[in-house]
Write a structure and sequence with these properties.
Blueprint (H helix, E strand, L loop, with lengths): L5 H21 L8 E5 L6 E4 L15 E4 L14 H13 L5 E5 L2 H7 L11 H4 L5 E4 L9 H11 L4 E4 L3 E6 L2 H24 L8 H10 L6 H11 L6
Parallel strand pairs: 5-6
Antiparallel strand pairs: 1-2, 1-4, 2-3, 4-7, 6-7
Helix pairs in contact: 2-5, 3-6, 6-8
């Protein structure tokens, strides 16, 4: 097992810090709660995570903690992370090695959608169809996610998906890079906004057929490079992060 080092680790810290800042800018965070992480080891078990109750808008690259998902003593230390952060991110990094980056927060439209009896993201347009048949679902909300069983259940619910709708809770997006995970977070919140506004109209929804929805979702594959161009621009608006 080896960790990222040198420039690669520094760049990961910069990108993750930028994701925190941008999430605060868009108003997707929850006070000083919510948490993002990024794996630094080949097996995904060693990862960066934000410190307990540090506001997203203030996070710098060097503020991020380096933790080991297999460390049983993490929560006994004076600098222990938020309990729900450890529960969710520790479990997913332990059990889902493909989750290089994990972004969990409570964007307003997504969270509103999560409170519906059926929080499915119906395919109505390009953005909503982007996620057609590509979202895991967890509908067993049990309160603040601070128990080991909760973390294990969330990791299992993620399955082979990159996006997890957490009923009565919020959203988790994973990706190979910060840019890709953030792009899914961005587009899911935009899609949830479209759907919730359509629901609010009270008019019948014009839901795409499964065939067209799947065709649209596959069409997004040709636009994967957008994530990096978009994230690079957004980072440029933040100025120096150090």
């Amino acid at each position: 097992m080896s960790d990222l080092d040198g420039e690669a680790l520094h760049q990961l810290r910069v990108d993750l810090a930028a994701a925190f800042r941008l999430t605060a800018h868009f108003g997707w965070h929850e006070s000083v709660g919510n948490h993002f992480s990024a794996a630094v080891s080949d097996d995904g078990r060693r990862f960066l995570l934000n410190r307990k109750w540090q506001h997203f808008a203030s996070i710098r690259p060097d503020d991020l903690m380096l933790l080991d998902a297999g460390d049983a003593d993490v929560m006994t230390r004076s600098d222990a992370p938020d309990a729900s952060a450890w529960t969710i991110h520790g479990a997913i990094h332990r059990e889902c090695t493909r989750a290089r980056v994990i972004l969990h927060c409570h964007p307003p439209y997504t969270t509103a959608l999560a409170t519906l009896r059926d929080p499915s993201l119906l395919p109505l347009d390009n953005n909503t169809a982007r996620f057609f048949n590509r979202v895991g679902m967890d509908l067993e909300f049990g309160g603040i996610a601070d128990e080991a069983a909760e973390g294990a259940r969330l990791a299992a619910s993620l399955g082979n998906y990159k996006t997890l709708m957490m009923g009565n809770h919020g959203l988790t997006c994973i990706g190979d890079t910060v840019a890709e995970a953030f792009e899914d977070l961005y587009f899911f919140e935009r899609a949830a906004q479209t759907l919730m506004l359509a629901y609010a109209s009270g008019k019948p929804l014009n839901v795409l057929s499964d065939e067209i929805a799947e065709k649209t979702a596959q069409g997004w594959d040709d636009y994967k490079g957008m994530a990096f161009a978009h994230f690079d621009y957004l980072k440029s608006t933040l100025g120096a992060l150090n």
